[in-house]
Design brief:
Rossmann fold
């Protein structure tokens, strides 16, 4: 855990009655209703773990590691973190294997996920359970997670309650990207939908950029053909299509050389927007959070 336990106690509340917790070596106990939240391997379990989830392996992340989209995410988040005061309380939702943990060294940093990965502090589904005090968070991180949330309005309602006025919600979400981590991959949002989602919960879209990389999108299509379509084509047409794929891969590499890295720009500055994904910052307004009626 990257946050002091004394500070953690001021953040967490009983999700059943809103009471304060007392803490032992193995549990949190509500002083009002005696509800117990177990602690195991340094994690607090507010939710049960879904039985059908497929945990993913650890992958190295960094400004120059991974896909162009992931590298762009790193640089975007690093820029946002550098603007956050050191005393800020930060919650990384859907933190998984802790891809960005090195960006938060010497910070009040807390990780949350619905699966108890080794790097996770709190196991909780925020669309169902709210164990945090209102306005207790200064910043919330949601990197490549929103597409895996079916009840997005419930999640944003929780964020609106948790964020202090002026607090930041920092989001990266793919758009033209293949399905991943199924069966927990549900949605793709346009930037219009992302803006409306924030407005419904008094979260102002203070920063919006689409990440555009035509060579990367071409590569996604080539991989789909290579691994899913062409292997099922009978011979001799199969050999012809494999030769076509080789030619496409060469063209993709030439396109990468000619275009260089992808670009992050506002969608309104792109005549025909086809982003790999969006990188967004919401700011919590001073208006009170409202319950969304879908």
């Amino acid at each position: 855990m990257k946050i002091e336990r004394t500070l953690l106690k001021t953040i967490l509340i009983c999700e059943r009655c809103g009471g304060d917790f007392s803490q032992t070596e193995t549990a949190l106990t509500c002083s009002r209703c005696n509800h117990v939240v177990r602690e195991e391997d340094g994690k607090f379990f507010f939710s049960s773990v879904p039985g059908d989830i497929q945990p993913f392996d650890k992958r190295e992340r960094g400004p120059d590691i991974g896909t162009p989209w992931r590298r762009a995410n790193w640089k975007f988040l690093q820029q946002q973190v550098e603007q956050i005061p050191p005393e800020t309380i930060i919650l990384d939702v859907g933190a998984g294997r802790g891809d960005f943990v090195t960006l938060f060294e010497q910070r009040n940093y807390l990780t949350l996920d619905i699966y108890p990965y080794p790097q996770v502090d709190i196991v909780c589904d925020l669309t169902k359970i709210m164990p945090f005090r209102p306005q207790s968070m200064d910043a919330i991180i949601l990197m490549n997670v929103l597409e895996h949330v079916y009840n997005s309005h419930e999640l944003f309602a929780a964020f609106a309650k948790m964020l202090a006025p002026g607090g930041k919600l920092i989001v990266a979400i793919p758009f033209l990207l293949k399905l991943h981590q199924t069966p927990y991959d549900f949605v793709r949002y346009t930037h219009h939908a992302l803006q409306k989602l924030g407005e419904d919960h008094h979260l102002t879209l203070s920063h919006l950029e689409g990440y555009y990389d035509p060579a990367f999108i071409l590569g996604e299509g080539i991989n789909h053909l290579k691994y899913n379509v062409v292997p099922a084509i009978p011979k001799p047409k199969h050999y012809f299509l494999r030769a076509v794929l080789l030619g496409l891969e060469v063209q993709k590499r030439l396109l990468q050389i000619g275009l260089g890295n992808g670009q992050a720009v506002h969608p309104d500055h792109t005549p025909n927007p086809a982003p790999v994904g969006y990188q967004v910052v919401y700011t919590r307004t001073t208006a009170g959070a409202t319950h969304f009626e879908g």
